[in-house]
Amino acid sequence: MKLDNSINRETILKDINHLLVSYGYKTSNIYDRSCFDILARKNNVLIILKILVNIDSLTAMQAEELSKISGTFLASPIIIGLKSKHHYLEDDVVYERHEIPVISPQTLCDIIVNNMHPEILAKRGGYYVKINGSLLKQLREQKNLSLKELADLSHVSRETIYKYEQGNSQTYPETAIMLEEVLNKPITLSINLLESEQKNTLDTTIQEPMELIKLGYEIKSSNKTPFDAVSIRPEDTKEVSALKNKIEEKLIEIDKLRNEINKKSSDTEILLTNMDKNRNNKTLDLIAEKTNDIASVTGHKALFVLKREHEGNSIKSIPAIYTWELEDMEQISELKKLIDERTNESN
Questions:
Q1: For the segment 299-343, what is each residue's pLDDT rounded down to a tens digit?
Q2: How many Å apart are CA 327 and CA 140, to the nearest integer?
Q3: CA separation (Å) from 90 to 48, 77, 83, 189, 320?
């Protein structure tokens, strides 16, 4: 499948959304004034996409907010672009801007349609690939080659081969090709951009709504997004962080631990939180529509915390909880029950 490399951003957005939906992803609406454009989920994979014609137009502030939102949701952020100020992006190559991966529309298409992940990483100094160090050692020993013998055949130093086998695996594609010719097997690793490795999370803690804070939530402010904040149960966040640390320490068990993280993250209590902030009803309805859309894709719940009376107990099917109701609550279970009741009422 080929995507049209149009330089029209709106066309790219439309094509990517169609691609994702066609291959089983649930997608959000398009938010072109946010730090992201589209959220998409399929099973336990959640990706957050920003589409740009020129990838150099991504600001550090946009990238930081995108990274924090992705880390909070355990999602994978990806920038889709056509060119930089110097050249057009090549297909099947991963670039970076502000530590966020950047790929062409066609590369995304290959990942989604063919499960074909890129292997080449473009950085300052040229192109690089990652070598599977344990496989390299296994193949070398199967051929009864010493470190020096393999180094001589591949025109690199003994220390370089040792470094690759110990996991310091980044090298030039030409070196990897020489090693593969000697060993007669592919030894490079693909770059799976759908696996979340984000560690940043929203860090600006705000002191409202106090009623949720009293119930044990941390309220993290979110800028450049269609919602005001994210409310998080701290103990759940700590569990996920601990699991991510285990992944780094036990690379052999990475697949098993990643499944465990996905299970834990699905149980994490995250509330997309909005407040009235003296907004009129029309503005609240608009915010509710956007938040509802994002909640449906991420799988998290949403609510409004209101100080003044509003018609009905929900806004566009999002439960509206009043501050005086929260003040009387002492247990999280009371809030959950009220959210469920008002969700059922609105439905």
A1: 889 999 998 888 889 999 999 999 999 998 888 889 999 999 998
A2: 67
A3: 21, 19, 9, 19, 48
